Amino acid sequence: MPTVHLHNTDIRFEQSEAHDTLLRAGLSQGIGLPYECNSGGCGSCKFELLDGEIEELWPDAPALTPRDIRKGRKLACQCRALGDITIRMPNDAQFVPLHRPRRQRATLVARRDVTADIIEFRFHTDAPAHFLPGQYAMLTLNGARTPRAYSMSNLGNDDGVWDFWIRRKPGGEVSEALFASLHPGDSLLLDGPYGLAHLQPASPRDVLCIAGGSGISPVLSIARGLLSDPALAERRLHFFFGARTPADICGLAELQRLPGFNERAGFHVAVSEPGASDNWHGATGFIHELVSRTLGEKLATLECYLAGPPPMVQATTRMLLLDHQVPQQQVHFDRFF
Ligand code: FES
User: Fold this and answer.
1) Tell me, what's the pLDDT at 36?
2) Could you report how far apart the first and last alpha carbons of the chain are, in Å?
3) Which of 283, 286, 299 is nearest to 213 (CA)?
4) Is 84 in a helix, a strand, or coil?
5) What CATH number has the domain bearing residue 124?
6) Which one of 20, 21, 24, 39 would you pick to mutate in the ligand 1 pocket, going by the greatest count of ligand atoms within 8 A of its CB?
7) Per the database record, which ranges form the 2Fe-2S ferredoxin-type domain (predicted)?
8) 304-327 per-residue burial string, b: 16 or more CB within 10 A, e: under 16
9) Residues 152-183: pLDDT tens digits?
């Protein structure tokens, strides 16, 4: 069983399962390794190999720049140890998982159309579904080579229930397979939870949730976590959803069922491509523009959570950090790019 030693520390952890990545091995043993996407896209998990041998699962992962490759930097979410190794990699208490990732079989118990291209998949595991609002899990379909990250839309629970709102991604191997061939009674491998962009219950600030497309899933979970916790009853919720067309709008019915929604929350939508036949009289344009117009100077006082396609997340973070000087530590998102 290979042992991973973090250089200049007394931290050692074992890669106990042969198919574990270094990142998964560390997190599952409670080591605070930095990461975000767990998918080779963000670069948060870079390390240097000082001694020993590794296997690289994706040597050309987009998070590795030509300079990284020249310098010999690797991604902990895309490497496995082939024997005992020593690596140089940061670790910090802020990355220590409250719920350590666990790999288990999950059975699909229900699927429900949310919009024309978003389906809610409900899975059940024998063990409790312990995760924080806003986190994600890695799903591996039978026969698939690589897992895909999907965020839960519900709240952690002891009943082993994991809900995901998943958008069909044309040409996406996993989402196409999920939509086409996964039916109640089928199972897949679920590994999680992961993710750092989760609800911060200790924050005294009101909450801003911004979602684009299927980014609604983690943001819905965060809204549920906020409105369902009596300890957070003083916090208000500003919920913004960016849809391409009016037919893509979703989430309001679920939010309206939450305790205190009418008194404590507002739901705002911007449609980016209203058609002439849509008869849409609401806001048009990009969601970050509507957030900026609606909340203005108030933004710097809020705890902000965002999820959605990379261009939407990039435009929204620029608006928050640069246009409105929202402190970086109040802006939460996991980069998947
Ligand atoms: Fe490894 Fe994002 S966590 S590249």
Assistant:
1) 96
2) 32
3) 286
4) coil
5) 2.40.30.10
6) 39
7) 2-93
8) bbbbbbeebbebbbebbeeebebe
9) 999 999 999 999 999 988 777 777 788 888 89
Question: Within 13 Å of residue 159, how many CA atoms lie on the same side as its CB?
Answer: 8
Question: Element (H or E) spanning 124, and its range?
Answer: strand 118-124
**CA separation for the pair 88, 34 (Å, rounded):** 12
Same domain, 324 and 212: yes
Does 202 reside within a domain? no
158 and 142 share one domain: yes
The count of other CB atoms within 10 Å of the CB of residue 234 is 8
Q: Which atom of ligand 1 is nearest to the CA of 78?
A: 1
Are the C-beta atoms of 138 and 148 separated by less than 8 Å?
yes
ipTM of the complex: 1.00
* Residues in contact with ligand 1 (CB, 6 Å cut-off): 35-38, 40-45, 63, 75, 77
